[in-house]
C-alpha cells in the first residue's frame, strides 16, 4: 500500500505540473485535480478512464491507474502538438528560385512538412531554410531564426514566388517563347512533349481558379506587346486596383487612359514622309527666294559650293573628302535630303557613275584621242576675278556661273580685255600661285 501511495503522490506532482501547463488551478485534492484535467482536455474522456480502471482492486490502485491513463493520454496529445523531425530517409524538396517550379515544389513541401502535424514548428522552419537554394537562398535572410518567424517566412515566400498572376504570366511566356524542335528524332519529340505537358498541366490547375480562363489568357498575351515602361505602369495599375486576374476589358480601359494622358503631354509626331516633304518645300522656297546660298567651303555668301572657285581648284580627291566630312550628297553636293532621292548623274562623257561632275576623277595620263576629237593647248593669262559686268555698277546681280575679266594677249602682242565664264562642269581649271589662270583653248582640225 505504501508503494502505491508513493506512486500516487508522484503522479499527483505530475498532475499539478500538467495543470500549471494548461493554466488550471493547482489547489485541491487528487480527485479534484483529476476532474479538472479530464474536463479541460477532450481527448482523455471520462468514460474511457473509468472503463480502464474498473479491474483495479483497491481505491489507491484505481486512482493510480486512472492517474497513469490521464498522464499517458495527455503526454501523447502534447507530443502530437510539439512534434519532432522527419524520418532520416525523407528529404524535403529543394527550391532554387525558379517561378515556374514553385507550384510543384510547394505542393510537395506542403505535404511532407508544412501540413504534417507530426513535425514541430522548429523543424518546419529548419526544413524550409534547408530547402531554399540558388536565387531563393537569401530571400529569408532578414527573418529571425526562431521558430515563431515560420508563418511570416511562409507568407513572404508565397508572395514572392507564388502569386497566381505572376505564375500565369511566366507560364504563358515560356510556352510562347518555346524554340521550334531542332529535328524529328524520338528523343527531341519526347523532351518537347514532356516539357509542354508539365507546363500545361500546371497552368491548367492555376487557371481553374479563374471564371474566364480564355479572357485572362488573352490579357496576358497582350501584356507582352507593351514596352517595358508601360509594363511597369500596367503592373502598378493591377496592384493599386487590387486586380488579381486582369481581363481584356480592364486592359483596354487602362490603355485608353494612357493614350489620353500621353497625347496631352507630347505633341503628335509627324511621319518621316511628312518631314521629308517639309524639308523639300523649305529647300524649294529658299531656292526661289535666294539666288545663292552660303558656300560651305569658303563661307562666301555670293555663290554655292558647286560655283566656288576655291573648291573647283582643288583636286577631286580633296573634294571627295570634303563632301564626306560634311555628309553631303555625292550626286548634287547638297545636304538635308537622302542620297537615294537624288537622281543626278555625272555629265562627263563616257562616265556612267551617279556622282557629281566635280567629284569625277580624270582618266589616266597617256590616253590617246580618237580621230575627230579636239586638241587642247594651254596658255597663261592674267586673271582679274570679278562678279560684275563692265557696264554694271557695284549693284549685286545674280549669275548662273562665275565670270572674270582677263587680259588676253595674242601672238602678235595685241592686248584686249574680255570677260570669260567659268564652266563649273569643266574637267580642268587650275589657278597658279602667281595669280595667272591656265585656260583651255579648243579648236578643230
From TrEMBL:
Q: Where are the transmembrane segments?
A: none
Instruction: Tell me the leader sequence span.
Output: none
Matches recorded under PROSITE patterns: SAP
Domain SAP, by residue range, is: 7-41
Short name of one Pfam family for this protein? Answer: DUF1759
Classify the source by domain of life. Eukaryota
User: What InterPro entries does this protein's entry cite?
Assistant: DUF1759 (IPR005312), SAP_dom (IPR003034), SAP_dom_sf (IPR036361)
Q: Where are the stretches annotated Disordered?
A: 379-398
Cross-referenced PANTHER family, in alphabetical order?
A: PHD-TYPE DOMAIN-CONTAINING PROTEIN, RIBONUCLEASE H
What name appears for this protein in its UniProt entry?
SAP domain-containing protein
- The organism is Caligus rogercresseyi (Sea louse)
Recall the taxonomic lineage recorded for the source organism. Answer: Eukaryota, Metazoa, Ecdysozoa, Arthropoda, Crustacea
Amino acid at each position: 500500500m505504501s508503494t502505491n501511495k508513493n506512486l500516487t503522490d508522484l503522479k499527483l506532482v505530475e498532475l499539478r505540473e500538467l495543470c500549471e501547463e494548461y493554466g488550471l488551478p493547482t489547489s485541491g485534492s487528487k480527485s479534484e485535480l483529476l476532474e479538472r484535467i479530464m474536463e479541460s482536455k477532450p481527448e482523455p474522456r471520462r468514460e474511457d478512464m473509468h472503463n480502464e480502471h474498473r479491474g483495479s482492486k483497491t481505491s489507491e490502485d484505481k486512482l493510480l491507474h486512472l492517474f497513469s491513463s490521464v498522464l499517458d493520454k495527455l503526454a501523447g496529445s502534447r507530443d502530437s502538438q510539439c512534434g519532432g523531425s522527419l524520418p532520416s530517409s525523407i528529404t524535403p524538396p529543394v527550391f532554387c528560385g525558379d517561378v515556374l517550379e514553385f507550384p510543384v515544389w510547394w505542393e510537395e513541401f506542403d505535404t511532407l512538412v508544412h501540413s504534417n502535424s507530426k513535425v514541430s514548428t522548429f523543424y518546419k522552419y529548419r526544413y524550409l531554410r534547408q530547402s531554399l537554394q540558388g536565387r531563393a537562398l537569401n530571400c529569408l535572410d532578414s527573418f529571425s531564426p526562431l521558430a515563431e518567424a515560420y508563418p511570416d517566412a511562409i507568407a513572404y515566400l508565397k508572395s514572392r514566388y507564388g502569386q497566381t498572376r505572376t505564375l500565369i504570366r511566366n507560364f504563358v511566356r515560356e510556352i510562347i517563347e518555346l524554340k521550334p524542335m531542332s529535328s524529328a528524332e524520338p528523343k527531341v519529340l519526347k523532351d518537347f512533349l514532356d516539357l509542354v505537358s508539365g507546363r500545361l498541366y500546371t497552368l491548367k490547375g492555376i487557371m481553374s481558379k479563374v471564371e474566364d480562363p480564355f479572357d485572362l489568357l488573352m490579357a496576358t498575351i497582350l501584356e507582352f506587346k507593351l514596352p517595358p515602361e508601360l509594363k511597369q505602369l500596367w503592373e502598378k495599375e493591377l496592384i493599386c486596383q487590387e486586380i488579381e486576374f486582369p481581363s481584356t476589358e480592364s486592359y483596354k480601359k487602362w490603355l485608353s487612359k494612357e493614350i489620353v494622358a500621353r497625347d496631352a503631354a507630347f505633341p503628335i509626331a509627324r511621319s518621316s514622309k511628312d518631314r521629308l516633304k517639309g524639308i523639300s518645300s523649305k529647300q524649294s522656297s529658299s531656292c526661289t527666294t535666294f539666288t545663292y546660298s552660303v558656300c560651305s567651303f569658303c563661307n562666301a555668301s555670293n555663290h554655292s559650293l558647286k560655283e566656288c572657285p576655291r573648291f573647283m581648284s582643288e583636286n577631286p580627291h580633296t573634294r571627295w573628302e570634303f563632301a564626306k566630312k560634311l555628309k553631303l550628297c555625292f550626286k548634287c553636293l547638297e545636304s538635308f535630303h537622302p542620297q537615294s532621292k537624288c537622281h543626278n548623274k555625272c555629265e562627263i562623257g563616257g562616265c556612267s557613275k551617279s556622282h557629281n561632275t566635280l567629284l569625277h576623277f580624270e582618266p589616266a595620263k597617256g590616253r590617246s584621242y580618237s580621230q575627230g576629237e579636239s586638241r587642247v593647248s594651254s596658255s597663261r593669262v592674267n586673271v582679274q576675278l570679278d562678279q560684275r559686268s563692265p557696264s554694271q555698277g557695284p549693284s549685286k546681280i545674280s549669275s548662273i556661273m562665275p565670270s572674270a575679266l582677263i587680259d588676253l594677249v595674242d601672238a602678235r602682242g595685241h592686248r584686249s580685255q574680255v570677260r570669260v565664264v567659268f564652266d563649273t562642269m569643266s574637267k580642268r581649271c587650275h589657278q597658279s600661285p602667281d595669280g595667272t589662270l591656265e585656260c583651255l583653248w579648243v579648236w578643230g582640225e
